[in-house]
Structures are given as C-alpha cells and as structure tokens.
Amino acid sequence: MTAAPSGAPARPRVRFAPSPTGYFHVGSARTALFNWLFARQRGGTFVLRIEDTDAERNREEWVTGIVSAMAWLGLDPDEGPYRQSARAGDHERAVDRLWESGALYACDCTREQVEARAKANATPGYDGFCRPRGLDRAGHALRFRVPDEGTTVVHDLVRGDVRFPHGAIEDFVVVKSNGQPLFVLANVVDDIDMAITHVIRGEDLLPSTPKALLLWRALEGAGATLPAFAHLPMLVNEKRQKLSKRRDPVAVELYREEGYLPDAMRNYLALLGWSHPEGREILPLEELVDRFRLEDVNHSPAFFDVTKLRHVNAEYLRAMAVEAFEEAARPWTEPPLAPWPAENFDPGAFRALAPLVQERVSLLSEVPAMVDFLFLDEPVVDERSWREATKDREAAQAVLAGVAAAFRSCPWTAADIHAATTAVAESVGRKLGRAQAPVRVAVTGRSVGPPLFESLEVLGRPRALARVEAALARLGADSA
Ligand code: GLU
Hints:
Strand content: 5-15%
Bound molecules: glutamic acid
Structural class: mainly alpha
CATH class of the largest domain: Alpha Beta
CATH superfamily of the largest domain: HUPs
Number of strands: 12
Helix content: 40-55%
Number of helices: 19
Number of domains: 3
Radius of gyration: 31 Å
C-alpha cells in the first residue's frame, strides 16, 4: 500500500483481530462491538480477521465460537473472516523487503545469553549484541533495528499522545529462527494490506504499539499515513482484578446459555468503558450507533458487573412483546433445558402465563422453574418452602381443607379462585397473603412463582384439587 492521500479518510476501515486461543471472551466481544459501532456510525467497513498463526494454541472450534458469538450479538462483518495463516506469503515478502532495506539483522543469541547479559546492562531487554556481526539470515532469528535516538508517539483517541522513547525499546524479534514471522509483524502487514485506518483494541496491546509503528514506517516509508489508535480499558471483576478465564465467568457462550438476550448483552457491553453523555443506560441499538464516540471512552478499568448485566437483561425481557418473549423462551420450554417430557408441554397454557412470567424473570433460564408445575406430572416440592409454609401445621391444614372444599365448586377463573381463597382465609382468621403460602407450595412446589390464582386457573381444577389433597394427606402423614 502506498501512503494514503492526506486528510483523514471519510470512511474508516476497522478490524477485529482475535486470536482463537480460547472461548470468546466478553472483553473480546466488547472490542468487536466498539469496532462495529464505529464502522456503522461512519459508514465504514468492519473487517473480521482471525489471527491464527500460532498453530499450537489455536483451535478450529474456537474460530467457530467467535463467528457464532458475533452473529448472536449481531456484529456482522463487512469483510472476512480472513485468516492470517492464509497470508503467510505476504508476511514473508514483507520480511524480504525489510531485510533488503537493512531494517533487520540476524541474531543467534540464546535466551539464556540475552538474559545473562541483560543483568549486567543498564537498560533491560536485548542489548544489540548481534547488530554489528553481519550474520546470515538463514537459520537465525531476525531482529528489528530500533533507532537509537528519537521517540515514537502513539496518537491514541482514548489516551491522547503516548510517547515511547526509542532508548527504552529493545531490538525486537520479528522472525523466529525457524523462519516463522511473529505476531507483531503479521499484524502490521495485514493492517497495511487491509488499509486499516483505526486500530481499536484492548489496552494490553498498547506496549507493543510503538513496535508496530516502527515496522509500519519501515515498510511504508517515513511519510506513510499511520492508523489512529484507540486502546480500550481492561475489564476487571468486583475485586478490581483483571478478568481472568480461570477465575471469572468470561465466555460469551456462557451468558448465551444462561438465557441472556443478545440485545441486552450488547447494550451492557457498550457500557464497559463508554457512557452515554446523559448517563442513560438502556440504549436501543440505533441510539448506540448514533451516540457512541471513541473520544468518550474512559481510561480507567471497567467493572464487569454481572448483577448489572442481569438487571439490564431483565429490563429487555420486560420490554419485549409477549410473542417475542415466548419465541426467545422456546428453547427453555423443551428438553433438555426444560425438566418435563416434550409431550407434556402445552403451548396454550404457557402462553396464558407468559406475560406474568416475563415480568418476573431476569434470565430465560429462570423460565422453567416458573412454569414447571404446569408440565410436570407432579410438582417438585422444594422442602424448605414446604416446611416454611406448613410451620403452623394446624393453620395450614385448615386452609388446605377449606380450599379443597371451595375449589370443588367455585367457578374456575382466577377472580373466582381469588374470592374463594379469600373467604377461606377469613374463616380461618389468616391474612390472604399468609393463607396462600401452603396452597402455593401444594400446587406449584415452590414459594415463589407467577401469581397464584392465575396459575391455578391455567393448571385446571382437577390437577389443582389433586395436589391440594395430596398436600393434606402429607400433612396428616407428617403429623402421625
Ligand atoms: N490478535 C490479537 C489478540 O487477540 C489482537 C491484535 C489486535 O487487535 O491488534 O490479542
């Protein structure tokens, strides 16, 4: 690529360049999102480039994981996925050019030798031992000759100008002794060839950025148009530790499986390091695209707060049209995610309760526990709830006996069941709220769930009665 014409390009080209070395991390998803938002906002191009040159650490399933998680989040690339490994020829040609121009030199120092000498040296890192030796290229590592004088300045849209004096940058390895170009080279060559104008990525890559710029200039000439950078703040957990694969739930896939909605996840990810100028947090996609600014990204670490993510998800769930909620919940209404046999599921019964369930769950994975009493032959009784609701055994017995009698004849609508239960509560001298507890546990097995009378209506009289009677029998047996 020759240097781009002067002036900022009107339509940026950005790239998301993950290395497929593990599950797709929420931090990577945030980087992908910020690139995508920037491209969409400016009518630019969003490129997906899989940096898969480290054959030992890469796995194909992780590439699939990246592509599918991005599709789930709606972060569609305009170009790619390109494979860095497919561009090995371009990387080698770039190395040839650098070698021929004298930007590189060969080095046969072992790591031990470098370390032993570094102890005695004033500056850390490689000491330039092989610079004057004129070794042959073949079979040797190749290092970049960093100028002794001067400074490389990284223009960062998030951090401002970050200065790296050359005296503090060692002559870094660009090609290993087996001829394999390293990440820093492949990354720059690809960015040049793909005409990338803005490099938006995690701040862990800031320290290697001056090396990238030195290479960029060596390849493109001193007057080359360099990309702008935006290094995004790292994500931390509640203890302010960097999010780690081992310690924290970081895989996007995990959130998808737990029943987070892609829109909620994307909305929350946008708030990791960026905030709306008026502090609004629930932001539809068009608004995110419209208001997002790299310049408004913060430097300080962003707390990945799962509680807040849940809250955002609950808001999105509540705001959905009920049909959309039913559709989103569908996988959780079928085995293996649902605990009932497939043939027991009654879509009409689910639909009847769906609006009430929708208001009460934060995650789609909470749906089965809200409605399993409808689709299991017998409710799974939560023993703690049972003990709690029947602590006053006599009162529980009186309520259950009263409703058993009333439920036999009252009209079977939520309003009538409500009225009948209220009458029973009065007759045994209990508040309705307390009187409901044993009925709820008898019928649903739990102490929390959708409103009781609607639940009973949908369950139907015969099953409701049978469960109340079974609970009465159990109370009798427990006391015997
Ligand atoms: N492949 C690098 C990584 O996953 C990212 C490179 C970049 O964005 O420049 O850490």
